[in-house]
Input
Amino acid sequence: MNDTHLSPEPMVTLPVSGMKCASCSGRVERSLSHLPEVQKAQVNLAMAQVTVTGTIGLENLVIAVEQLGFRVPVTTEMFLMEEVSSALVARLAEALRGVVGVRRVVLDEHLATITYIPGTVTLEKLQYAVQGLGVRLHRTAAPQDGVDVVEAERVEEYRAIRNRLGPGAILVAATLVLVHWDMWGLGRLVALSKVTNQWLQFLLILPVQFWSGWLFHENAWVTARHGSTNMHSLVSLGTFSAFFYSVLVLVVPDFFAVRGIHAEVYFESSGSIIVLILLGRFLEIRAKGKTSQAIRSLMALAPKIARVARDGVEVSISLRDVVVGDRVIVRPGEKVPVDGVILQGSSVVDESMLTGESIPVSRGVGEPVTGGTLNTSGAFTFEATRVGQETALARIVDMVRQAQGAKPPIARLADRIAAIFVPAVLGIGVVTFLSWWFFGPEPALTYALLNFVSVLIIACPCALGLATPTSILVGTGKGAENGILVKGGDALEKACGLDVVVFDKTGTLTRGKPVLTDWTGNDVQLALVAAAEARSEHPIAQAIVIGARQKKLELPPVNSFEAMAGFGVRADVAGHDVRVGTRRFMKDAGIVFSTEEIFLDRCELEGKTAMLAAVDGWVVGVIAVADVVKKESAGAVSRLRALGLEVVMLTGDNRRTAQAIAGQVGIVRILAEVLPEQKSDEIQALQAQGKRVAMVGDGINDAPALAQADVGIALGTGTDVAMESADMTLISGDPRGVATAIELSRATMRNIRQNLFWAFAYNIILIPLAAGVWFPWFGILLSPVFAAAAMALSSVTVVTNALRLRHFKPSVCHPSL
Output
């Protein structure tokens, strides 16, 4: 047997501009997957990128994407370089153009301007390409990555829609006034003939149709040129059908006067559709605008400068210049630049930004430190063991990117059906036209055109286009009223089908800050203990001091103070020798204790941090501090169980502490001792069992798991990164909002299904009538007037049904926020 190791296929990620819906992303994914050199293609619509695995060259991949009617955006960066001779300029440009991903190179004396595809070109690749020519490049600014380019395009589209939405809405409002001119009694002020009124409507809606709606029409045209359809095809087809029908009525009204039918214009219908769909797209883009900020916030954790000792001299260098083996110096209040092991000194390090655990940890010689964490006290020197993309922080950033990229784009039902519905309607319309033209009574052409337009009008996808966005708009608005911020309709749709809700412990089910819970001594002794701890910056010490002050105790003066990292503190308080710390701390001082062991064990069994306190060589009590459970947590778990969901607790704490907390809130299944980088793996394991999973967290370390979960829910009291990585945010931090969010998603999706049913029911029932199927037997024809009325009624039905969501109330009243 041949045991030759096969290396994995290379993977490349490209930003793609122009994908507007699931139909677009699905077409890109299918087309690229069918290329012979592509093993797998996966599109992330939210991040506007495609990840391709295979041997296909980058240039061929870009060509394939552009042939589908989409664009691969580029970025331009300037590099300083040493002066080069004129003889080298051509060779230098050729060398730089040979780097995969570079699209254009312009050289000008000491400056090289390079245009490239973000994410495919690095400074190291460029340096390697020109090193044989004796030239070195130096960046003039921080580079843009794919996230930056996609964000820039999102902002550009956001502004384009905003600029079209306002004027369009004003023109449509003015048109509606004209439609109801006589009904509202305005004819008594200014008399307008019907023809004049209709021409004014035409002039008002003309810019709405061709300028405000151009974003839809352009995308529909590009999609049609490549033999496909999407939601924009429906919008464009429906609005143009109503618009051009109205133009024909206005220009040649007698053409439609068959059997006494008096045709009307429907300019306001086409304009209203465009404005409403623009509004939905505007809100959707704004809601999804924070996706890339999560990664930026993560990357911002690492300091830009590191202080290292080289050749016996302390120097400050750029973070990217730190190499494995460097001796890195960290002072109090500074962030740890990279991962490493402490060589000298000790300190208390706040790792909450990465681990989510609120209590800082003591670190001494031989113990690891992680890049991005905060040194709260003490100075130390450590040896760098992992730098660059190998650090824990860099791996978390990468996991967030991968988890977001692994999410399939939400399969919007309207887009899936549009691929069949639109061609089918067109086919029915053509068959209707030809049937009446060849076999219908005279005037055959008039009948054929009349019924063809009726089919298109009655099949206008107004209700289909409004079915989802109106419900989502009302649903997300209702969510905001209940303190739930939803990034988009995707989250509502996915939350509807959840099976499991996973809670991070710290800051989610618990308060996230330690508080004084137990003290077995008296108040005088507590005042001495708190005074000793007042000199410490450790959160446990601060919890003891706050607890004493809440009892209105006056703290005596401290004459001397000494902290032993990892063991406890010793202080001279008003002439008394006060010690607070661990069992070993007391034993090393020769202080005897025995009966206190029982209470210590009980506190630790309950997940508390318990310590001994001694005054003048005698133990005076046991003091315990804990991150206590939120009073709302048990109710949140109970509500979720009532909804038929499994509830799991995920934590980095030891199993005993985790079990103590889980018992208080009613959770049975526990995933304990999970490292930060393993949290997303635990979510994946649940998903591998076929379960749809929601993750609830508040810390930076939760970001990969929030991104990996089917639905990520962050608490507003947590970190910005957690909130930006999540699909939903609970403003107040009340965990009961999770159940409210799920109930709201179920109500919204139920409403959307009802809307889609009515939208299609109108079409299924009335399209045969519009086509004249019943004419041979009953002499019934549906004029475009009634076709448009039915179309408008279907839209009214959908919108009215969506507005019912305003009356949504959670099963248990959620606190007013």
About this structure: Residues 438 and 444 are 7 Å apart (CA to CA). The radius of gyration is 34 Å. The first helix runs from residue 22 to 33. DSSP finds 29 helices and 29 strands in the chain.
